[in-house]
Amino acid sequence: MAADAVSEGGAMAEERPPRLVDYFVIAGLSGSGAPIPEEPWVPEPSGPLRPPRPADPITDVAVIARALGEEVPQGYTCIQTSAGGHPLELSAGLLGGTQPVICYRRGRDKPPLVELGVLYEGKERPKPGFQVLDTTPYSHSANLAPPGPGHPRTYLTYRRAAEGAGLHALGITDLCLVLPSKGEGTPHTYCRLPRNLNPGMWGPAVHLCYKVGLAKANTLVYEAELLGRYPEEDNEAFPLPESVPVFCLPMGATVECWPAQTKYPVPVFSTFVLTGAAGDKVYGAALQFYEAFPRARLSERQARALGLLSAVERGRALGGRAVRSRRAIAVLSRWPAFPAFRAFLTFLYRYSVSGPHRLPLEAHISHFIHNVPFPSPQRPRILVQMSPYDNLLLCQPVSSPLPLSGASFLQLLQSLGPELAVTLLLAVLTEHKLLVHSLRPDLLTSVCEALVSMIFPLHWQCPYIPLCPLALADVLNAPVPFIVGIHSSYFDLHDPPADVICVDLDTNTLFQTEEKKPLSPRTLPRRPYKVLLATLTHLYQQLDQTYTGPEEEASLEFLLTDYEAVCGRRARLEREVQGAFLRFMACLLKGYRDFLRPLTQAPSEGARDVDNLFFLQGFLKSRERSSHKLYCQLLRTQMFSQFIEECSFGSARHAALEFFDSCVDKVHPEQDKPEPTPLVELEELSGSELTVFITPPEEPPAPEGSESAPQYCYDGFPELRAELFESPQEQPGALPVPGPTRSAPNSPAPRRTKQETKVAQRMAQKSAAVPELWARCLLGHCYGLWFLCLPAYVRSAPSRVQALHTAYHVLRQMESRKVVLPDEVCYRVLMQLCSHYGQPVLSVRVMLEMRRAGVVPNTITYGYYNKAVLESKWLSGTPGGRLRWAKLRNVVLGAAQFRQPLRERRRRQQQQQAAAPEAGGAQTEPRLERHSPTRPLQRQTTWAGRSFRDPASPTGRLVKSGSLGSARGAQPTLEAGVAHMIEALGVLEPRGSPVPWRDGSLSDLSLTGEEPASGGSPEDSGSALSTQSTEAPEGLSGRTPKAGGRQDEARTPRRGLGTRLQQLLTPSRRPPASRGPPPELPPDPPPPARRSPMDSLLRPRERPGSTASEILLSSCSLCRACDSLVYDEEIMAGWAPDDSNLNTVCPFCACPFVPLLSVQTLDSRPRAPSPKPAPASGSRDAPVPGGPGPVLSDRRLCLALDEPQLCNGHTGGTSRRVEAGAWAYLSPLVLRKELESLVENEGSEVLALPELPAAHPIIFWNLLWYFQRLRLPSILPCLVLASCDGPPPPQAPSPWLTPDPASVQVRLLWDVLTPDPSSCPPLYVLWRVHSQIPQRVVWPGPVPAPLSMDLLESVLRYVGLSEVHKAVGLLLETLGPPPTGLHLQRGIYREILFLTMAALGKDHMDIVTFDKRYKSAFNKLASSMGKEELRQRRAQMPTAKAIDCRKCFGALLEC
User: Fold this and answer.
1) Pairwise CA distance, residues 10 & 1417, whole Å
2) Is the pLDDT of residue 142 over 90?
């Protein structure tokens, strides 16, 4: 593989990644030359003491035949009884039996035996390296089986340690025989041979067991201490634990006496894990080795204990002895990169025992700590060159949603086998005490890590010490469950506790007492257990074929070429074993989310108890009856309670829990085979082959003309000298430790998890193939963009509670539009904002809305919801009085609703009377009493507050007259109190202020609310959320007369009484400042002359009608390949379902190109305030929006409806500053990725700063386009003016809210902002030119003669007669063939559509009907001209995907 190499300096100067290693320590006996303590360190006994064992290992084994008169040889020990004390007689009572007996001898004169076996002659061959014991010491046959046919000759086999193995070679230390028929089991820490020594038909079965250990003598043990460390200062985020030396030397620092010629043993590598109070793990790796120890530091008593002095002749020293001490060097890190740690520590040890060197050892230590980072996507491969012959390769860990750990599932499976692995899984699930031991300390950590990782998503909550030192061995007597790993030599001193399950990794055995046995594997769910066992068995058979060589010995060429290929098979098996356990856990907890209990009311004591958060009995009843015993124990464990709490309130593991939920959805427990797709899907790391080379530290410069002489030579590992360490090149502060990414203060977490991002990408890829789904996918991402900006919008709003209710209504609008959300960020952000601003009731409503939409909340969303309900401040006190007033208010509202039909009938009678000639001029009086029954009910902002209406308005109060009089001094009565309550509530009003109540009853009350704007109904849509003042300006049409407005009100459908009462049944407390009701979001487009209620939300009581700035946006882009204009819906249809692809596809030439979003900003703000011009409502040419629409001949009036007033409320002489630009038009998928990155790096506050348009123009203008396209409220238009005004004064609390949102008008245009004068003019522009209708852009170029007014009228006439095929044919004939004819940048479909809209007006244009007619015309012409020719001449209509995009987002309807 070709790898790109970069130097260390260039790659690492860009950013400071986390270090690979944080600390380097040395542990051993303290003191440089002082005497060691007189008394050796003896740990407190943690269990029953065992009798002392012989010090020498077994070097020989023999078989003697007693029936042949053979005696036990000298020095041999005969095994005469079994482990339980029963007599042993092999082939006893049989004729011809030799009565064989097994004997053994101890000593140190030869290498010890390391393994035994049993060979059946004729059925197999001896294993390689084994010798067959076929004769006795007296040259007789050593056959153990009884004589006779049918009995195979049975011999013992043995394997001896290699010559020169040294004093520390593992060997067999004990032998015994067991009789299973007598109830004898394998003794603890013994290995049992599976072959029977008595294979005949007579006599009991006999099995040989042996114990492997390290037989030592003449040893003093002391507690290890810290001898040196680097760096000397603690990292604030990660201080060095005080117990590190004990873990570096878990069996203590020893002083030993060896024969003088004994070679130094190979250093022993061990790993350990330290767990902090918060549950975070620190990984350590240590290398233990021996060094010479001066005899002068030993006292006479210690020398005698070590065998250095003669026991007979006091004080005489014995020759041929050497004293050695054990020390350790270690590194600590937050990353479990154990192979790299092993390579580095081995290099340091070799460096200390070789030499001389030009660089001190301290230079290599500091260089490695400061300059070797942990691999990242920017540095996926790091090759560290420690010397010309020592290299190590660091690769970025496989990107997996599972938590990173030091687990090795292959070593677990290889050490225990499939059945024992499943048994341990059951023991961990039921929280038993587990004691894992081995003679290989590096194996303990990887296996224990696998034990706590196999129960994912459960997290082990009890004591966990993968490598337990002798100093902490008292944890074995703890009365709580634990998982502890310990060296097997511990059992040379102590017996295991009775209630502990011991797991021997060296002999693949499980040792447990009868009273503390875990449940049988049969209690596991039957089919998931069957699949798990079959999968592990299949993988266990493949383990021998994998590469297990020492990686630290690999060459540089191997690391760069074949490392990934050779180790890839082992990594694949590792993932498959982990995936098998993950599938079992997913089947075990299948459907658990259905039994979670969300909080729906004010929290009380015990709200966090698992019984209140999870329906335990319901979950238990949903399981198999045969597994109830298992589930009963599992549900009572601490880790299950913690799991439910994490699912209910969120935690740092929320991404991993969400991944587990996706696995639960994928598995099918009823199947007998695993799913074909793996649960753990690995992500592509980065696709980069970049390799960063870390060079060795630089040698000191030598004088000119000479070479620097080596000056550093060590007899052992030296004491660290601070002056020899290299100072870091750029180290202003401590490197960041790995952890969660910094988030902005007081900002919700709008980021998607990796799992949500992957699911969204899959949904987008599936939706891209279906036109309707693709449009809904884009729409869902657009709403996700708005909710990402919601925190900034809420902070900027004067009434934050009102803004939260606005967001809630946006959710309801999404449900009504059936928006398909790719994730749950919308609900999650709103829930967290409700928690931040103390609105728990609104959080409950959001959850109910979420369930109503059919969305099941994942772990993250569910956690935010419960946090919002639990941590928010609920209303205190008894709500009895408030509820009574609410009930009374609902009664009043209900009575008023029942009076509505009577008032309608009375109003119709009054209208008939007013229309009669004899009524004369008496029409004024009934007009005062005329009332529209369609005024909406308004939610109140306070319980005793006034209505949202202006208090100065005469119609906003209740007026009493008649019998109750104007009675200011009347006595208070119950009816007067009710009337006062009604007035205080502000939801009812009399039918007219001057008209008194006739009888003081409720029949004369009507519903009050905001005065509906003329020409529109309160149920109209999105203008309630639009920050622009009007969709069409008031310059030409002006204010509509009241009569027209009331006619529109009469035509507006009413909302149901049940809906109103349901909303009023659960009132919420709001601050007195929020006087406006939450804006409604019906799906219809807003009326032309209605102002948005969000204007009052951002800046209430502003004078409407004045527009300080106008922003024109257009997404119409030019394809350079074919010189054709591509419009918005076609751009959307051409986007790829990729969040990194900016291109779209041209519908005419199929070439990819980057579309542009064109922007023009027209700033008309005068320097001095000027009076507002009078509206043009008195113009007799202005059409009335509420009246009948214009006809085709009223071309100017049609244009007046479509073309907004150019001055837009300003005087014609006011100068306008025009700024134009074009930025990339991004897909919502791409924009969301960029916005998430921006918010993650700079916080959500950046979305409300005036610098946003200049600092991030692409993101800003795209957001503004989408928000205006969907009529969603935002503060982005205000930022345009704020950015033009320069930096705000420091005393302004919200400088971006200084401009009035109504003073910024945003217009979205369908066509280009500035047409190309060198191209052929569009037909709709020529129509306006020929008709002498004023328009926004004047055509600057010449007009071709064929495009005359007669042609345009003919096209319109054909369209009006539903003969679109003739209009298309006429245009094609007029334009001519492509090479020589006129070239239109717009297609034929677009030209006819825009021309029809310009002539008829957008209110009288049905695009759906036009599309149907055009499609019929295209098919008719295709039969004569051919579809290919029509496509070449660009006469085809948009694709189905483009039409669906326009249907979902709505047509712009303005050119």
Assistant:
1) 64
2) no
Beta bridge partners of 283: 273, 333
pLDDT tens digit sequence for 99-133: 888 999 988 888 888 899 988 887 888 888 889 99
Question: For the whole model, what pTM was predicted?
Answer: 0.72
Cis before 879? omega within 30: no
**What three-state secondary structure class fits 571?**
helix
pLDDT higher for 1179 or 715? 715
Q: Please tell me the distance from the alpha carbon of residue 1368 to that of residue 149, in angstroms, as a whole number.
A: 104
* Helix orientation angle between 771-788 and 1228-1242, rounded to the nearest 10 degrees: 20
User: Are 387 and 37 within 8 A, CB to CB?
Assistant: no
| Pair 849, 808: CB distance under 8 Å | yes
8 A C-beta contact, residue 970 and residue 934: no
The helix, strand and coil proportions of the chain, stated in percent and rounded to the nearest 5, come to 40, 15, 45
Type of residue at 505: L
Alpha-carbon 1410 to chain mean position: 46
Phi, psi values for residue 1316, rounded to 5°: -80, 115
1002-1061 residue pLDDT tens: 333 333 333 333 333 333 333 333 333 333 333 333 333 333 433 443 343 334 433 433
Nearest C-alpha neighbor of 253 from the set 338, 350, 327, 321: 327
Q: How far is CA 1207 from the centre of its chain?
A: 50
**Quick check: 418 and 473 in contact, CB under 8 A?**
no
d(Cα 1111, Cα 1127) in Å, to the nearest integer?
19
Burial (CB count within 10 angstroms: exposed 0-12, middle 13-18, buried 19+), residue 741: exposed
Tokens coding 1414: 């055009």
Percent of the chain with pLDDT over 70: 71
Structure tokens at 988: 């009812």
CA–CA gap between residue 970 and residue 1158 (Å, rounded): 68
Angle at 473 between CA 278 and CA 490, to 5 degrees: 135
Task: Give per-residue pLDDT as tens, 300-313.
Answer: 888 888 878 776 66
- Nearest alpha carbon to residue 1014 among 993, 1036, 990, 1041: 1041
Helices and strands, counts by H and E, the chain: 43, 35
pLDDT tens for each residue of 1141-1181: 899 999 888 899 999 999 988 877 665 444 444 333 333 33
Chain segment 939-996, per-residue pLDDT in tens: 333 333 333 334 333 333 333 333 333 333 444 444 554 455 455 444 444 433 333 3
CA-closest candidate to residue 685, choices 405, 380, 402, 1139: 380
| 622: amino acid identity, one letter | S
Rg (CA), the chain: 43
Q: Is 87 strand, coil or helix?
A: strand
Q: Which of 1208, 1437, 1382, 1373 is nearest to 1304 (CA)?
A: 1208
